[in-house]
Design a protein that fits this description.
Helix content: 25-40%
Structural class: alpha+beta
Mean pLDDT: 91
Bound molecules: fe (ii) ion
Low-confidence stretches: 69-75
CATH topology: Double-stranded beta-helix
Number of helices: 9
Order of helices and strands: EEHHEHEEEHHEHHEEEEHEEEEH
Shape: globular
Number of strands: 15
Number of domains: 1
Length: 292
């Protein structure tokens, strides 16, 4: 297995035989590289659904089923078999299509969960005619580069994540009923800075981040906007132009992602596996308090 960097601070392209990817022979190395580089690209793999599940299981705990609800309040599933078909075409995934416009904005997956997903495996089945790249932003690197006094201040803060904050900016034509369903989702408060078990720290940013707890709404809005602009500067991002056969794995705990616009009525379809998270978002301050 060999790898080359796709950009200085985000993403590596990995060359490995498909059989080795399926056997898990290099699973430990792949996990370490994923942690270090945020996004891993494997070209020419073209995994079937079975193979995608097999590769996912070599790397972690494959998520079966889901907890999201559709616009009609019905529970959405990742599929009993662990494969979610990501498409705006309601015929491909009738429950999910209405949620996907939110994917065009910078986000982390699963910020409503106590333990957000660890990683996503993503492979294209049909590409859009134009556009449809996926962008990734390294939230470890974005935190690392902030001035030390600002880091110390940010480490004290918590942010409330809501479904309506994530979806309304992308779906302003929603019905009142849809908005009410989003509001019925549980909100989740997370530290703004994640002190990972590895010792590394990352910003927990996502469009779902609605407000900073205990801060004046104007200051909270300005801070979250400013951090989002900071973290998505070119030096922290990698933009992936898809080819059929690609397999991309991204670290959902230290990166944001977004889909870039593509034509309306597109046949674009991806298949996705999600790995369950392995640690809750833990604040440095809380750790210190527990230790004391
Ligand atoms: Fe996502």
């Amino acid at each position: 297995m060999t790898s080359v960097d796709l950009s200085p601070r985000m993403g590596s392209q990995v060359t490995i035989r498909k059989a080795d990817l399926l056997s898990g022979a290099h699973a430990k190395e792949i996990r370490a590289l994923l942690d270090a580089r945020g996004v891993l690209l494997f070209r020419g793999i073209a995994p079937s659904d079975d193979e995608l599940r097999t590769i996912a299981r070599t790397l972690g705990d494959l998520r079966i089923g889901g907890a999201r609800r559709g616009a009609d309040g019905k529970v959405l599933s990742e599929g009993d078999d662990g494969i979610l078909k990501v498409s705006l075409d309601a015929k491909v995934n009738p429950d999910y299509a209405r949620f996907l416009p939110g994917n065009h904005l910078w986000h982390m997956d699963g910020t409503y969960e106590e333990v957000p997903p660890l990683a996503t495996l993503f492979t294209p089945y049909r590409l859009s005619r134009e556009g449809g790249d996926t962008m990734f932003a390294n939230t470890y690197a974005a935190f690392e580069d902030l001035p030390e006094d600002e880091k110390a201040e940010l480490e004290k803060l918590r942010v409330v994540h809501t479904m309506q904050a994530a979806l309304f900016p992308a779906m302003r034509n929603c019905t009142p009923e849809e908005f009410a369903v989003w509001c019925s989702y549980p909100q989740r408060s997370h530290p703004l800075v994640w002190h990972h078990r590895s010792g590394r720290k990352s910003l927990v940013l996502s469009t779902s981040g609605a407000w900073v707890e205990g801060m004046h709404p104007a200051e909270s809005h300005d801070l979250l906007q400013r951090l989002m602009i900071h973290a998505t500067q070119p030096q922290y991002t990698y933009r992936h132009a898809w080819q059929l056969g690609d397999l991309v794995i991204w670290d959902n705990t230290g990166a944001m992602h977004r889909a870039m616009p593509f034509e309306e009525g597109s046949v674009r379809e991806f298949h996705r596996c999600t790995l369950n998270g392995e640690e809750p978002i833990t604040a440095p301050r809380r750790e210190a308090a527990l230790a004391g």
